Amino acid sequence: MKTRTIAFAGNPNAGKTTLFNTITGSRQHVGNYPGITVERKEGSVDVGDVRLNIIDLPGCYSLTAYTQEELVARQVLVEERPDLVVNVVDATRLERHLYLTVQFLELGIPVILALNMMDDVRNKGMSIDIAALAKALDSDAVATVARGGEGKKELLEQIVATSASRSGDWQPLVISYGPDIDPVLEQMIDIIEKQQFLTARYPARWIAIKYLEGDEDLRRQGQCDAETSARLDQLVQRLHDHCLKTLNSFPEAIIADYRYGFIHSVLRDGVVTEREHDARLDMSDNLDKVLTHKVVGPLLLFALLYLMFQITFTLGDYPMQLMQVLFNWLADTASGIIPPGYMQSLVVSGIIDGVGGVLSFVPLIMLMFIMISFLEDSGYMARVAYMMDKVFRMFGLHGSSVMPFIISGGIAGGCAVPGVMAARTLRSPREKLATILTAPFMPCGAKIPVFLLLISAFFTEHRAFIMFAITLTAWVMALLVARLLRSTIIRGESTPFVMELPPYRWPTLQGIMIHTWERTWEYIRKAGTVILAISMLLWAAMTFPALPQAQQQHYQHRRAALQQQVAACSDDLCRATKADMLRSLEQDHNATALRYSAAGRLGIMLEPLSKLAGFGWRTNIALIGGVAAKEVIVSTLGTAYSLGEIDSEESSPLAERIQQDPEWNRASAVSAIIFILLYAPCFVTLVVMSREASWGWAMFALVFNSAIAFLLASIVYQIGSMV
Amino acid sequence: MPSSLRSLQVHDKAVVTAVTVGGEMGRRLRDMGLVPGTEIEIVGRAPLKDPVALRLRGFTLTLRNNEADFIRVEKRVV
Questions:
Q1: More confident residue, B75 or A651
Q2: Do the domains A2-166 and A178-273 sit in the same CATH topology, yes or no?
Q3: Which of A35, A161, A631, B46 is the most exposed, having the fewest neighbouring CB atoms within 10 Å of its CB?
C-alpha cells in the first residue's frame, strides 16, 4: 500500500476541522508538538490502495509566524514536507481566505483548494467559476460542504491524483511587489542563491520575502551564516529607510498590499460573481444586536452561565450518584475477596476510594464540556471575549482570559487542567501567565464536594447562596490577584486584541463529541495515573509507621475483653452498651494510629501555625493531601475522622461528625472554604502549568497561592471568632 | 478628510487610507486584511464602548480603540 502525507490547513472558522472529522472519522490521534503546547491532530483514510495520513494543522490567518499556530504550520510544511496541502477556505469569503493560500503558493508546496461552504455560496445566489479560479492559481480546486460530506469523494480522488502527479514538485509562485521592492528582492535572491543560504529548506525568494517582512524565526535560523544574514539585513534596512522616506510605508506593508492586489486580480476576471446580500451575515448581525447589546448582552451572558451551572448540577447529579454506587459496590466486593489487613486497606481505602472519588466526577465534567464546546463551536465564546475585554483589561488581562477562567470552574464545576491549557489562545506571555496563575482560584469540580460537605455541616439552610458567594469570591480574587501580578512581577504592555468574530453557526454533533471526549479523556487519564499514585502514597503516609507492638497489643486485649463481655451479656441493653464501647474503642484505636503515622505527625507539627486559620491536625492532613488532588480532601477527612475503617452504616455521616467536633465551627468552616478555594493548585495543574509556563512559575503558584489563601483564611477566622 | 477609525460611529462606512504602525501589531492588522483601500463598516461596539466590531472583506473583525487609533480612514458620505 502506498502512503501519502497530506496537511490540512486554513483560517480558523473555515470548517477545516469539520472536514477533517468527516474524512478521518474516528481514526484520529491527538498529541502535542514537541516543546510547545499546540495540539497536533493526525488521522488516516484509505482511498483504493493509497493510505492518506492527514495532519490537521492548527488554524491560522497567515504564515508570518505571529502566533505559535502559524509557526507550527510553517514548520510542519518545511520540515515534514507533506506531499501536498489541502487548503480549506470559506468560499463565501474568498478574498479574505486566499491571503493564506497565496502564501502557500509562494512557498511552492502543491496546493488543493477545498472550496468549503458551497451550500452558502449557492444559497446566496453567488457563483464561483471553479475551473477559472484553479487556473488562475495554477492549482487544483474542489467544491465541498464539510457538514454534509458533499464533495468528500471528489476531494479524496483529487488528493490521490495530485499527490501522484506533483509530489515533491515545489513550484513557488512569483508575485510582483512593485518597482520599489522587486529590484531589492532580486538582489537578495542573488546573494541567497550564491551563498546557498538556507536554500536546503526554503525557496530563495521565500527567504528574501521573509527577511523583508522582518521574520524573527527565519532570522534566528539565518544565524548559522551570520555574514550572509547581515548582508541581507543591510539591504532590508536600506529599503526600509527608502520606503519610509518616499512612500511613508514599510516594506512588509507594501508586500501585503500587493498580495491583496494579486488576490483581487484573481477574483475579478469573472471568477466570482458578486453577491447581492449575505444572508448568513444578516442572521449573525441580528443575533449580535441582541447577544452583544450593551444591556441585554451581559445580562444574557450571566443568565447563560447560571443556566449552565444549574444544568450541570441537576442533570449531572444522577449519573454521578450512579458512579458512586458503582464504586461502593466495587469497594464492598473487594473487601469480601481480599482478607482484612494492609492489602485490603490499600485496595479499598487507598485505590478504590481515591480513584473512584475522581472518576465519579466524570459525568459532571463531560456535561460541562459539552456545553462549553457548544458555546465555542457556535461562535458565542468569541463574543464573550468581545464583551468582557474592557473589564478584563482593567485587571491586566485579556478578553480571551474569560474562557480559561470559565473552564477552570468560573461556572462552578470545571477543571483547572483544561482551563490552564485553554490559555494557549492568549498571545502575550504576560497576560497568559497572569491568567494561568489565577485560573486555579476557580471552584473546580473537585473542590465542590468539600464545599458541599462544609455547607451541609454548618450552613444547610443557605446552600445555594453560599455556593454562589464562593463562585463570586473566586472571580473577585482572580481579578484582583491578576491586577496585583500585572502591576508588580509581570508588568508590561497588553497584547493586541484584534480577532475575528466568526458568524454564528449551529455546531455539529460530531465536532462537539470529539471536543468533549478529548477533554474528558485528559481528566480520566489523570485519575488513572497521578491520582492513583497519590492515593497510594497518602494511604501509606496515613498508615505507617504503625503503632508500636505494645500499644497494638493493648488495644487487642481491650477489644478481646469487650468481645467477651458482649458474649456474656444476658439482655439487649447490655449488648448495645458494650457494642457502643467496642465502637468507640475502635475509633480511639484508629485515631491513635493516625496520630502516630507520618501524615498525623506532620499534621500535628503544623497545628500551631494552622490554628491561626482554625484548622486542627486532621484538617491539616486532608489539606496537605489536597495539594496532590483536591478530590482527596473529603476522602482524607473521612479517614481521619475514622469513618472508613469501621462499619459505615452504623456511624454518623462525616458532616455530622465534623459538626460535633469541637475543633470545627462556622468561623473555621468559612476559613476552610476560603483556604481550599484559593490555595495551591493541584499536582496535575502544576504539571500543566510547568508545561505552559515553566517549573519556576508552577512553584511560584504553589507557594504564592497558598500564602494568599492562608492569609485570607486566617483573617476571616480571627474576625469570625471574635463575633 | 482622513480621520482615525476610533472616531467612527456604528453604521459608518469608510475606506482605509493608511495603517500607521509597524512591527507585530502592524503585521497582525495586515494579516487580518486591514490594508489601504479596504472598505470597512462599523457594525457594533461592545457594551462598554470598547472594543469595536467592523465588517471588511465579508467578515467581522474586532479590535480595541487604542488599536483603532493606528488606522487612518476616509469616511464615506452616504
A1: B75
A2: no
A3: A35
Distance CA A406, CA A410 (A): 4
Instruction: Locate the chain B residue with the closest alpha carbon to A285.
Output: B43
How confident is the model over A43-63, as a mean pLDDT?
A: 91
Helices (H) and strands (E) in chain B, counts: 2, 6
Query: Which among B28, B36, B47 is the nearest to A498, CB-wise?
Result: B28
| Nearest C-alpha neighbor of A506 from the set A403, A372, A379 | A379
Looking at beta carbons, which residues of chain B come within 8 Å of A278?
58
Determine the distance in angstroms separating the CA of A664 from the nearest CA of chain B, rounded to an integer: 45
| Residues 6+ away with beta carbon under 8 Å from A612 | A710, A714, A717, A718
Joined together, the cell numbers standing for residue A60 give 491560522
Q: How far apart are CA A468 and CA B70, in angstroms?
A: 42
Per-residue pLDDT tens over the stretch A616-637: 888 998 898 888 888 778 877 8
**pLDDT over 90 at A371, yes or no:** no
A253 and B19: CB-CB below 8 Å?
Answer: yes
Looking at chain A, the whole-number percentage of residues with pLDDT higher than 70 is 95
| Out of A62, A257, A278, closest to residue B58 by CB | A278
Query: Which amino acid is present at A207?
Result: I
Task: Give domain A2-166's CATH number out of 3.40.50.300, 3.40.30.10, 3.30.700.20, 3.30.70.20.
Answer: 3.40.50.300
User: Which residue in A453, A473, A646, A637 sits closest to A542, CA to CA?
Assistant: A637
- Beta-carbon separation of B33 and A260 below 8 A: yes
Residue B21 touches chain A, beta carbons under 8 Å: no
Across the range A711-720, mean pLDDT stands at 95
Classify domain A178-273 by CATH architecture. Orthogonal Bundle (1.10)
What distance in Å separates the CA atoms of residue A650 and residue A647, rounded to the nearest whole number? 6
d(CA A240, CA A279): 43
Domain count, chain B: 1
Question: In chain B, which residues have their Cβ closer than 8 Å to the Cβ of A93?
Answer: 57-59
Nearest-CA neighbor of A361 among A324, A309, A406, A326?
Answer: A324
Return the residue of B nearest to A502 by Cα.
B60
Q: Is 0.95 exceeded by the ipTM?
A: no
